[in-house]
Amino acid sequence: MQRVCFLLKVREDRLAEYRERHAAVWPEMLDALTAAGWRNYSLFLRPDGLLVGYLETEDFAAAQAAMAATDVNARWQAEMAPFFEALDGAKPDAAMQPLAEVFHLA
């Protein structure tokens, strides 16, 4: 099982709406994440907009590819892109660069 952690930056003026959107994630998006192998997926948001994501999956590249192949993900990413800083035209899911794990207490 791979443990994946990534960082993104939510625009400070969109924090409240970002929280609202994630309090009501579309059921079909949740189903797609589960079917694509995303497990124990969490997002943590700091008051300045730093977003920390964590998930577990058998194969992160395969899990990303499975999501990229879904229509619901394309729609979700298009709606979420304006919430983020410094995407340089990328979709939020494409901008997720995993952090290197340096310690894990098993």
UniProtKB/TrEMBL annotation:
Any Pfam family hit: rhaM
Name a single GO biological process: rhamnose catabolic process
What top-level branch of life does the organism fall under? Bacteria
Question: What Gene Ontology molecular-function terms does this entry list?
Answer: racemase and epimerase activity, acting on carbohydrates and derivatives
By its UniProt entry, which PANTHER family does this protein fall under? L-RHAMNOSE MUTAROTASE (PTHR34389:SF2)
Q: What is this protein called?
A: L-rhamnose mutarotase
The organism encoding this protein is Streptomyces coryli
